[in-house]
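Recall the central idea of this unit: under ordinary conditions, the amino acid sequence of a chain determines the structure it adopts. In this exercise we apply that idea directly, starting from the sequence alone.
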Amino acid sequence: MTTESVTAKPESPARVAPSVLAGIGAFAAVGVYVLVSSIELGLWTSLGPGPGLFPFAMGAVLAAMSVVWLLQELRRPSETAEGVDRGLVIAVVVSLVVLAAVMDLLGFQLSMFLFLMYHLKLRGGRAWPSSLITSLAGSVGAFYAFNYGLNVALPVSAFPLLNTIGL
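Accordingly, the structure predicted from this sequence is:
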């Protein structure tokens, strides 16, 4: 028996950072809120799936992922960053506010295209071809998927010229 083994202190277990727990709690709360709210919409009708079925499924997935995240953090806590990139947070929040403000004026396709181009090309530094392709797919593709695939109307441009060309 050596003196080193007697005097060595056991390592204290790593703790989950409070900010990570707050994030997990926020995701779980949103998941549970969506679950409860979607039940009021009706999960099933006599014709098949009701309007609340898809939100119910998404709320269940979000709540389940929150539980999985919590278990992962309890097993092996992630390292927290020293500081938050406030510039990135402000850029995302401001760009989302601008997107919401111009959506009814420019329409979904053009607004989302500009939003995605800003984040991919200007903020993310991606190459022009990948930024253009991703932005077009994300804006025009989502518009057609929602409008024609799901029959959910997204805003179109208030400008007659843009409206006549399908924006």
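The first strand starts at residue 44 and ends at 45.
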